[in-house]
Design the sequence.
């Protein structure tokens, strides 16, 4: 029989109507139960109404991570995890993004009713990220379930080294959990990209920009062999797609030396002549000043920075940083040309992003070609709007 935990009745609306998956310790009626982390529990209101079921958490302010709301058809953690993974897989299949050689996000935390868990697929290499002691304790069950979903044709690597773990008192965790594959190569549109979670950032590749990287090829094809500037290039995804569409040259600007090592592998993997690339291993702000002094101009510029607003206390400062970056990048655009602006800051809303772009483009004639949000394999929920963090736009600037 599963343990039952009761929470204040005012949470009935919070859970049943708003779909909140996080039950905080302060919401529990009476003393906090002494249960092992990862224990599968039933959650009821103090009036006895079933609110759902989920996993008990013992580190940080969250006490329970719900994986179903208003009902509980599961009798064990394994049964619940398998059901959620299979549903996540079927959703991606419906969206047409499941394929053996490509990369996609299988689980996007609350968006797939598995709060605190990220799972990315890279051509038979699964990389997952745990933000909770729940998933640390359920590691074996999770790996076993993934092997069943993919018929054991995968390796599983954990990359749980994010800052949020340290903030709640969890140490970083990383390592191969099953199989022998720690790197992979994925097909993305017309290019191949090397994935190395050990040396790369996040789980190895920024899958949230996959759609925009592929889209770049279409725009490049309508320009006359453009010069391309790829700022914060990481492992070169945008620039390599541009070169695949016959750009004249791509200049990659990246500060992370490990990312540049993978970038060089991607260039070799896609058989790109070295005279078509230039790599600047330096700070983007300093590089922008350097390129401006040289009077360099590019017909396509990619501006894909890290999050400048990690928390709401620095929101105004972060907005100013985005504006300055977008403006200084625009000064290097050879018009007519295309500039891509992006923000992965969850604390910057879509309207605010549009406002920053509008200010950056003051006194120019421009057309917004696309305005994109977080892609379909990164689902969000009204109760977890931070999951829909990405805002991006391709903009045609006239002369």
Sequence:
């Amino acid at each position: 029989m599963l343990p039952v935990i009761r929470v204040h009745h005012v949470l009935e609306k919070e859970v049943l109507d708003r779909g909140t998956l996080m039950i905080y310790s302060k919401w529990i009626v009476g003393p906090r139960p002494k249960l092992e982390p990862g224990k599968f529990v039933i959650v009821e209101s103090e009036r006895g109404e079933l609110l759902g079921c989920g996993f008990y958490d013992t580190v940080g302010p969250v006490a329970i991570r719900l994986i179903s709301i208003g009902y509980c058809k599961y009798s064990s953690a394994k049964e619940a995890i398998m059901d959620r993974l299979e549903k996540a897989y079927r959703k991606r299949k419906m969206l047409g993004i499941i394929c053996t050689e490509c990369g996609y996000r299988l689980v996007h935390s609350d968006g797939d009713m598995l709060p605190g868990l990220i799972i990315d697929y890279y051509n038979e290499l699964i990389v997952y990220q745990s933000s909770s002691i729940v998933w640390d304790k359920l590691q074996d069950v999770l790996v076993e379930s993934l092997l069943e979903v993919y018929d054991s044709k995968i390796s599983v690597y954990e990359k749980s080294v994010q800052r949020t773990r340290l903030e709640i008192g969890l140490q970083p965790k990383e390592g191969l959990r099953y199989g022998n594959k720690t790197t992979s190569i994925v097909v993305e549109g017309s290019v191949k990209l090397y994935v190395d979670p050990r040396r790369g950032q996040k789980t190895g590749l920024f899958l949230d920009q996959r759609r925009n990287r592929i889209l770049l090829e279409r725009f490049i094809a309508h320009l006359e062999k453009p010069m391309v500037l790829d700022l914060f290039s990481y492992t070169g995804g945008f620039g390599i797609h541009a070169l695949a569409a016959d750009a004249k040259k791509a200049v990659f600007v990246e500060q992370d030396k490990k990312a540049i090592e993978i970038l060089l592998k991607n260039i070799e993997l896609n058989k790109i002549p070295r005279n078509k690339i230039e790599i600047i291993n330096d700070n983007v702000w300093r590089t922008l000043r350097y390129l401006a002094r040289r009077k360099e101009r590019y017909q396509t510029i990619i501006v894909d920075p890290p999050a400048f607003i990690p928390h709401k206390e620095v929101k105004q400062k972060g907005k100013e940083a985005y504006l300055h970056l977008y403006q200084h990048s625009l000064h290097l655009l050879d018009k007519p040309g295309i500039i891509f602006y992006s923000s992965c800051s969850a604390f910057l809303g879509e309207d605010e992003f549009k406002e920053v772009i509008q200010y950056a483009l003051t006194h120019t004639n421009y057309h917004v070609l696309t305005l994109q949000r977080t892609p379909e394999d990164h689902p969000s929920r009204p109760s977890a709007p931070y999951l829909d963090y990405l805002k991006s736009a391709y903009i045609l600037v006239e002369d």
Q: What stands out?
A: Residues 93 and 99 are 9 Å apart (CA to CA). The chain is about 30% helix and 30% strand. The mean pLDDT is 96.
